[in-house]
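Progress note, sequence design subtask.
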């Protein structure tokens, strides 16, 4: 699946963008849009028939995350996430928010942010292991807590699937077509390579949202990713 990152500042821009598309999409609502518009934006997007990944990356003590997630559960979104850094107990408490729901969303965890470098891990956060080991440990913790998968770099997919199993979902940003600007992304992958690397979902923002023709850009990326 291709998830379009709706990194827009307000409701009107978001809805006008979505109205260009005549098919149900997977879209990602992040902190910018959610904190700017409130839960209302979720209802508006749902009215248009799209699937929603609510990317708020919860990270707090287990009880607080469980209560916060219980509120998000009322929004009936299709995918939500937490930070794996909160630990196994925090993640498993988050899952309890969905105990009484018939239709549960996919729940995934952020491993290491792609903005975190090895240098930062070692010198700023005083973490004495490698980025790769850290990411795999977070993924294993995520699996142990009963979540469905992780957000990670496409380049980490193979190692994560080997450690956690092929049905453990990976959601990967950092996608660019060969003709696109790299922007602020560091480790990028094309949609074709993302397919070859075996990821389940790609998250694509600017290559679609800032394209001259967003619908055509989406179709091209989807075609490349699904290998159609
Ligand atoms: O515009 P672009 O395709 O770079 O957008 C990628 C989206 O994925 C943005 O919403 C960004 O916040 C998100 N993301 C990311 N890297 C991560 C986690 C999330 O780029 N490690």
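Output:
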């Amino acid at each position: 699946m291709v998830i379009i990152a709706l990194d827009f500042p307000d409701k009107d821009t978001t809805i006008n963008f979505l109205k260009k598309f005549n098919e149900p999409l997977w879209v990602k609502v992040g902190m910018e849009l959610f904190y700017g518009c409130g839960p209302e934006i979720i209802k508006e997007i749902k009215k248009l028939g799209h699937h929603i990944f609510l990317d708020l990356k919860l990270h707090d003590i287990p009880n607080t995350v469980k209560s916060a997630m219980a509120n998000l559960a009322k929004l009936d979104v299709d995918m939500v996430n937490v930070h794996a850094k909160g630990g196994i107990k925090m993640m498993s408490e988050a899952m309890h928010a969905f105990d009484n729901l018939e239709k549960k969303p996919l729940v995934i965890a952020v491993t290491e942010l792609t903005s975190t470098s090895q240098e930062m891990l070692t010198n700023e956060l005083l973490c004495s292991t490698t980025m790769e080991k850290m990411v795999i440990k977070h993924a294993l913790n995520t699996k142990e807590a009963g979540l469905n998968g992780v957000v990670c770099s496409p380049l980490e997919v193979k190692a994560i699937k080997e450690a956690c199993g092929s049905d453990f979902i990976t959601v990967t940003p950092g996608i660019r077509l060969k003709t696109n600007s790299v922007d602020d992304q560091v480790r990028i992958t094309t949609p074709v390579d993302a397919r070859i690397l075996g990821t389940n979902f790609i998250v694509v923002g600017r290559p679609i949202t800032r394209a001259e023709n967003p619908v055509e850009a989406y179709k091209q990326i989807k075609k490349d990713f699904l290998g159609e």
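Residues 131-144 form the longest helix (14 residues). Work on this subtask will continue into the next period as scheduled.
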